[in-house]
Amino acid sequence: MASFNKVILLGNLTRDPETRVTANGNTICKLGMAVSRVYSTKDGERREETTFVDIDAFGKQAEVITKYMRKGRPLMVEGRLKLDQWETNDGQKRSKLGVVLENFQFVGGRDDNDSSSASSSSAAGYEQSSPPKRVSKPATSNDFSADGDTLDEDVPF
């Protein structure tokens, strides 16, 4: 039986990323995202439906997201669905569907409130009026995939 597990989400963070480092040095980042859908009913009434999604990121990606993302900022996430199941202390079975981040892309420009680092980032070639450019290349040292866990340090994002 064939199967395919891929999720692409574009939304805003509902809270600041929460980061932990395990005893063996692995970085784990938990973040929440709100994804909205606007639609019209049969009567022509415009409605908005918001879905809240929990996302887990690991390794260098977790570190980069923690460094640059804050509550309310937009982010595009590619990942896979994962079902977590557990039993509570009183014996009830619980489950939650979440997303494991495999790739991400920053969306939008830098915050106006972040003026302290604006001068240093413009020296690196970042213009506040334009979002970061995504360059398609074969997997190299700046690949953000779960397999290639490194980042080119002179790129601000």
TrEMBL record:
SUPFAM superfamilies: Nucleic acid-binding proteins. Keywords: DNA-binding. One of its GO terms (molecular function) is DNA binding. The keyword tRNA processing does not apply. Residues 115-124 have a biased composition (Low complexity). CDD domains: SSB_OBF. Residues 108-157 are annotated as: Disordered. Coiled coil: none annotated. It comes from the Bacteria. PANTHER family: SINGLE-STRANDED DNA-BINDING PROTEIN. NCBIfam families: ssb. Homotetramer. This is Single-stranded DNA-binding protein.
